[in-house]
Amino acid sequence: MSSYFNVTTGSVHLATASTSNTSVNGATSNAELPGAVPFAELEGKDFEEQIEILNNQLVLERRIKEGAENFLNIDLNVTIKESLRVQVKSELDMAEKKIEAVKRHIEVVKNKSKQSSGAALSRRKVESKGKDVDKGWPACIDEITPGEDFRTALQSATNILSSLVSFQSSYATGSVPSSSPTPNPSETDHQVIETMSKLTDILRRSLRVRYELKIAEVLHVVLPFLGDKYSKQARAAAYRLVRHTLVDVESVKLLDESRSLDWYIIKSLNRDNKHSVEKEQVIKLVRTMVEIGTVKGENMTPGGGTGVVPISEPIMRAIIAVAEQPEDPFRPICIETLTEICEDLTGGIGVLLHLLGDGPIELAPLLSAAFLHIVDSPRTRVYLQVGGDLELALSAITDAYGKGVDHIDRMKSCSKVLQSMLRTWSGLMYFCMDDMRAIRSIINTLQIPSLDSRNLPAHKEIILDMFFDLLDIRPPEWHQTFIDGRRLTMFQTSRDAGEGRIELEGSERGHQTFKLTDQYIALLVLVLTHAGLCEALSSMLEESINGTNLTRKATLLLAEVLQMANRVLPLSIAAKIQAIPEVFDKATHYSDGEHRIIGTTAMSAIDSFNRNRARLQPSTVRTSRPRANSVEDAVRRGQRHVEQVKLKMSLQMDDKMFQSSLLETQVMLTKDSSKWHFETLQEFIEGPLLNPKRMEEAIKVSRFVRRLMTFFHPFNHRFSDMPRNKSNTKWVRLGCSLLSTLMTSADGVRYLGTEDQFLSQIVKSFAQLDPFNGVPDSDPIFSKKRVADTLTYGYLEMLGTLSKYKEGIELLEKFKVFTAFYHLSELRSREDLIKGIIENLDYSIDGHPRIVLSKALTSSYKVWSSSTIWNTELKKIQHIRLFATQHLGDLIRGSAKANAWTLRLLLTQLYDPAPEVCELAVHFLEELCEDNDILQLVVEMQPTMDHVGEIGHPLLLKFMSMPMGFRYLYDAGYIDREMDMWFNERNIYYVVQVEVFLAKVFANSSEDDEDLLAFDGTVPPHFYGEMAKTELGCQILQEKGHFAEFSQFIRKHSNESEDTELIMKLKSILWAVGNVGATERGLPFLEEEEIIPAVLAIAEKSSVPSIRGTCFFVLGLISSTSQGAELLDDYNWEATLDPLGMPTGLCVPVDFQAFTTIPSWSPVVANRTLGRVIPPTAEAEIEVITAIQNLANTVIANASSRSLARMKSRPEYRHIFSSPTMFYRALNMISTQSYRLQIRRFIVDLFNLELNQELVQKLKQCATMLKVHPSYKLSASDTSRLSMFGPLGRPRRTSISDEEDELDPPTTNAVPAEAQEPVITLQPIHKIAGFVIAVN
């Protein structure tokens, strides 16, 4: 219910909404009685909706109360005074009682909501614990106490640890500390899980308790529960508890030093998938140890990587085994773990390299990114071997010959990985080593003859597609026509070619300016063509004389490469590529007819492609006017000529023809609009009626205009009741045409202003929505439903048509249409009408339309204090202002010239309290200020933008490029403040921003990425670069001395390759220097400091590829001026020029191999002695150890496994499989050598030993006793015994393994033991050391 009291002179209006049940005489319905507020509609709704409904009801009742009080305070001398007072008093009393009732109900609902939220919180905790139950442990019974303090939590944790100790003793003695009279292991196991879950819960919600508990004490209590006698759920709960105990590096170090946990982790990771709940917690524990315990090394040795990971070799081997198992569900997370740490103490890098080539397709990008990070640093890339390691990523392409159809998916994945690697500086420079052998191997696969191989063409097509994507060639739709062999002359341009040209001009306008992506693609074209891409594509043409889709696709790629080389490379370099000597040799090979046909066909196809490309593809050159010689313009000129002839004939129509045309429209014969001839009617209005005499006749004599205008009157419900659909929109266009025609003659203006009721009825229709004009109509003309479903919306377009004419604006003012607009702008619920008005009004004439737009841009109105109502209304207001700002920006963007009034309105939006509106205004200003005229106008207005924050910096940087704008900002103190910020912080942020944008662009990110859409490929504006564009800016830069400091830093740290912070700062300074050198005023700074040779030296000699890449982009910036291009030409860096001889900002080295080749290195060989143990002496033990060692050899693994099974079944060997010492030897072997997961599981299961604390202590003793001293050397007898194939040089007794497999070599020709080196020892020699990727 809503009531409005509007007091006017001489009368009283009580306006009650239709939802009210109050009658005129004051009687009320049952629902309006005090205490009987209708709360039934609250049923079935949640608490937030109930509170919102009650707040709305409260606001309405307060409005009634306020209106009644205002009415009673007015002294009215009218006859109905007393009766109205009685009625209003009753309304006031009722409103007060309802307010109290609603307030009480709100309190009740709020209390219920609090109780429900508390219960829901408890349910969520129980559910979360229930999820833990599903994973293998029950939930903690105790609820989290919100007021629990630290002392209570610590005391609870201590008590729980004590109870866990009692559980251990009870398990050992067989007694259960419970009410159960008999010991029940399953019940005890359940209680153990429940108790550990309680402790874990305490640690999760109290970080301080974690620090207070000693990790050694927790491990002492928890480790026994990791034994085999407990269930997998109990072991999982124990691992989980240990994980939540870790807080810092020291806690992880203590955990790692104990070494007791390693054997449990190894045993758990070796288990099968039935123990997934346990393995999951183990892997989470390992990842937590890596995350918390990794220490980044600052002074690491070359063999020590970039940090220390607190993971022992046995655990690492176990993780690698899981990563190598294809069927294991935890394989992906183990691969990710290895990739994140790259800890190769146990051969992890080799595993990752093989996974890069043959592993899961979805993880290949992750692995490639990790290895590219490794290559970028000289400290870490020494662990890779050029030509044999990272090239494994190419194996799916280079080894594709002879593979089946199932290999295509892997090949596509490999091509994407290779594409991403070649789009990074690390990958490109790595693959350019060794005379680009890796790149040549990819290109040479195109030259393999197809012969009878059915899959080879598909493989080659994948490679061709990869080069299309790599060079960012986006084929239009007519490319497929070219590939199919059809004539391109038959392919016509689309109808929206004109629109396509306009859109393309907007998106491709950077073609004439410097683009970072073009700079990199220029280098790629240079590398690929030098590696033989054009030759390989030419050789593909020989596969078929008649041509196939594959050969035509190769021809298409060749034509695109030639076109791209012509665009992005200097003329001297591009000319060599354009020569394509292989194709010309074939075309001029007169002695070989086939070669000549192939060559001439290819040249003809390339020529046809270039000619039709210019015809079919819209021009990328941005121009201020359409071409006068285009085909589309000829068509338009013909159409305009026909229209002019028809109009001339219509204006010269005689009386007889005029009357005939008038009657032909059927308007004078029937009122049924469906029977009217619409086309004839439209031609009649837009033709003969433009003649003033014919208009006068149509108005006064035939009354044609009167009958037609009556059709559009709102209250006649003819036009206004038509359904809104595609077929009926023509009537809206007809109405706009009729009003335009009326505005062209004085009789038409006079008729519309004095005789017709069209505008008066429009105003009355708007008045139906005004609550201050009496009781609203039950079905107003401009109701939401009618505007959405009927042609009523067309009235707004018609009023917009009138606003285009000066006479039309005078008519709108006469009928007070603009007053109705102002009233409508105050309506909270009709933003659809406000939008329609803003969208349809014409603002070319100064007057009320501009005032309406200004009012919408700053719209705000009073709302009540209810928070829900306030939020709803505030969103509507912001939405209207946002829409108006968007429309204003579109108006400015579409105008032919800059208008001061529109820019002034747009600048006003900078001060809007809504950040969305302010951000949109800044966005439009940034775009519009690309035009120097608009920028000049904006700077002259001197807007204050300190309040805008970060989003306003790009716009202020544009201001700095003009002398007036720079002076204004300098006087405001902006220059000094920002200069200090850029010198200390923003330079670094600029580097991060550019590198992230480039990574997203080259990674083919989704197009809806907001950051990617904001980056159009051009260099973002830099403070120092914009500063150097003005004379005052150069003067201040000289006085501050920042550039001299930049030059000094570059010279001092030009060879930096270790410190990441210094490398990042070096990049930031290089970008600053490059942006200064990109201006004509800033280039003298570089010449004065002689910094260009230093930058060139870094580009050609730095050991960090990313620094070289930064220098490459910086040199491109310097080459964007004619003077800079001349300077670089002296150092053999040639700039690309446009047809007018002006530099385009693209620059490449003449000797590009010196730039793209990083210095070679010698792989680091790690010298490690870990894992060596004293060899056994008993013959039986030697045979068992030898058989276990042979399991690592896939050739004889089956035989060894059968031998071990037979040994275990014989009495003389059984004691070996129950010996802790032999078990330790077996664990040591699988912890220092590579075994598959099934083999590791088989070895552990061979021993009849239960893993518990007692066995762990024995294993620790064995580790101490069997540890080999560094000075220890094996005796001759020991080395002969420890051969993989048994003792060498002397006969031995027949073993179990000999009964089935005779693996020993003959003893007659054996070499004496004294001269024989051992075939293999217990510890293999590792050639690769480990390292860690330091993640910033």
What's the gist of this structure?
This protein is mainly alpha-helical and 1336 residues long. Helices cover 60% and strands 2% of the residues. The protein has 65 helices and 6 strands.
Question: Which helices and strands occur, and which strands form pairs?
Answer:
Blueprint: E1 3-8, E2 11-16, H1 47-72, H2 81-135, H3 150-173, H4 185-205, H5 207-212, H6 215-222, H7 232-245, H8 249-258, H9 260-269, H10 276-293, E3 295-296, E4 307-308, H11 313-323, H12 331-341, H13 348-358, H14 364-375, H15 395-398, H16 407-422, H17 425-431, H18 433-444, H19 456-470, H20 478-483, H21 497-507, H22 516-530, H23 533-540, H24 549-568, H25 571-578, H26 581-587, H27 593-616, H28 631-651, H29 655-664, H30 678-686, H31 692-700, H32 704-712, H33 729-743, H34 746-755, H35 758-767, H36 784-789, H37 794-802, H38 806-814, H39 817-824, H40 831-840, H41 848-857, H42 867-894, H43 900-908, H44 915-928, H45 932-941, H46 953-960, H47 963-971, H48 974-1002, H49 1010-1014, H50 1023-1027, H51 1031-1040, H52 1042-1052, H53 1060-1077, H54 1083-1089, H55 1092-1101, H56 1105-1118, H57 1122-1129, E5 1133-1137, E6 1143-1149, H58 1152-1156, H59 1179-1190, H60 1197-1209, H61 1211-1214, H62 1220-1232, H63 1237-1246, H64 1253-1265, H65 1276-1281
Antiparallel strand pairs: 1-2, 3-4, 5-6
Helix pairs in contact: 1-2, 3-4, 4-7, 6-7, 7-10, 9-11, 11-12, 11-62, 14-16, 16-19, 19-24, 22-24, 23-24, 24-27, 26-27, 31-34, 33-37, 35-39, 37-40, 40-42, 42-43, 42-44, 43-45, 46-47, 48-53, 52-53, 53-56, 55-56, 59-60, 59-62, 62-64
